[in-house]
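Example 3.
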Amino acid sequence: MSVSPSSIWSSNFFILLFLILFYFIRKSKGYLHINVHFILASFILCICRLAVPVEFSFTKTIFFTKILPYFTDFIYGRHHLYGVQFTFGQVFIFIWALGSLLKFWRHIRTYQKFRRWKKLSAPYDMDFLSPVLNRLDKENILSPRITFFQIPAKIEPFCSGIRHPAIFLPQGIYTQDELYYIIRHEIAHLSRHDLILKAVVETICIIYWWNPLVYWLRNDIFHFIELSADRDVSKNLDSVQIVDYTECLLKCAKECIPFTSYLQAGISESSAEFIKLRFSLLLRDKSNETGRINQIENSLVILLTLVVFFSSIFLVFNTTNPNRPADFSPTMFSIGRDDVYAIITPMGYDVYVNGQKAHTLKQLPDSLDGLIPIYNSISEVSK
Amino acid sequence: MKSKRLTDRELAIMLILWNSDKPMTASEIVNKAGDMTINIVQGTLPRLLNKEYVCVADIIHINKVYGRTYKPAITQSEYMLMEFQSIFPESSRSANSLLAAFIKSSANQKETLDEIEDMIKDYRKGLTE
C-alpha cells in the first residue's frame, strides 16, 4: 500500500468522473425518486477515497503514452535557478503544503472567533420553549445533553458542538409549532453526527485546496446533509405536518441569513437549485416511494458509485515517456509488476526483463527493494 | 457598520453594560467585574468610546467629584449580528465555489421562494379536497 503522485491524481480523476456522471443523473426526470441517503453515502465514499488515496499491491497500472507524459516531463523535469536544482513537482508540493497550512490556520482562527461568539448567546427563554421540549420528549426525540441558546433574529437556526451539542434559535420570530419543527431538524443533524462529517469534508478541502472539485463535492455533500435531515424528520410526519414543516422552512429561508459552514448544521439553503429540490422532495407524492422506477434509479446510483469507487482502487494511471533517448538500449526498462525479477547469484543479482537476462548488479539499489521479486534460482521462477 | 474587533477585556466590559439596566460609572463597572482594576477599566473605556460601542450617558456628581456614566451604543444583538457577519462574510455564506457558480441554475432566489410558496399552497389545497 503506498501513496504516489499517480495514486493521488488518479483518485481525483475518478472523483471528477463521478461528479460528471452524477450531474447527468441530477438532470434526469427520475432524480426526485432517488433515496437521498444513497446519494449522501455515495458522496461519503468519494470523500473516503480522497482521504486515503493509496494504491494497493493489486492495483493495476494503466500507462498513457499520449499527453500525460508531457505533463509528467514538465513536473519532473529538472531546472536550475541560482545554482539550486529543482523540479516544478517540488515547487508544487511546497506550495501545496504552504497553502494547506495557511488554510488550516485560517480555519482555526474562524473556529476560535465562532466559539467566542457562541459564548455571547444567552440561554433561550425556557418558559416559551418548555411546551415544545415536552412534546419532543414524549416522542423520545430529545436528548438531555442538548442546550438551547438564543441568537439575533436574522441569523438562521443552527446546531453546533460535537462534545457539547447546542441548538441556537433566533429570538422572537417563530411560534412554538415552528420551533418544534426547527428543533426536530437540528436534532436530526445531531443524531446523524453530521457535524463530524462536515468537519471531515472540510479537512479534505484543506488538504486538496488546489482542486476545485473538492469544493463542488463539499457543496453537494452539505446540501445532501440537509436533504437527509429533512428525510429523517418527514418520514414520521403525516401529510399535513409535512406542509407545516415546509412552511416553517420557507419562513426560515425568507426571514434569516443562511450560512454554510463546517462549524454548524443549519436549516436554510442559499442555492436556488437546491431550495427547489428540497421542497420538491418534501412535497412529492409518498405513494411513489416504493415504485419500480424508484428502485431502478436507486440501483443505478449504487452501481455507478461502486463502479467508480472500485475502479479508483483497482486502477491507477501512469505515464511512459514517449521521448526515449535516441540511444535507448535494452538495459533501460520500466518496472512492471510481472515482467521483472532478480535471481541471486555469486556475483550479486541477475535482473531479468520479460524472461530475458537484462543486467547483472552487485547489489540491488534501495529504490528496487521490495519492488521486484527476488528468487534464489531459475527453477523458483517457473514455480 | 462593520464590526470592530473587541478584545477580551473590552468584551467583558460590554457584557457588564449590556446586562445592566442603567448607565454605569467606571467604579461601578470595576465592582461588577471583580477581576479588573480601576486603571484597566478607565484605560479600556476610551477605546470603546473610539470604537463607538459605548457612549457617555451623563455626567454625575460622585462624592466630591464629577464622573461620567457610560451606556452601550449598540445592543448585544446588534453586536452579535455584526460579529457574525464578519466571521462568516458574504463570500463564504453561501458555500458556492466558482465552479458551482458556473454550473448552478441562474434562478433568482426570491422568485424561487415565491414559486415554492405557490407549490405549498397547491399541495395544501390538494390535501383538503
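Chain B is about 55% helix and 15% strand. The longest strand of chain B covers residues 54-62.
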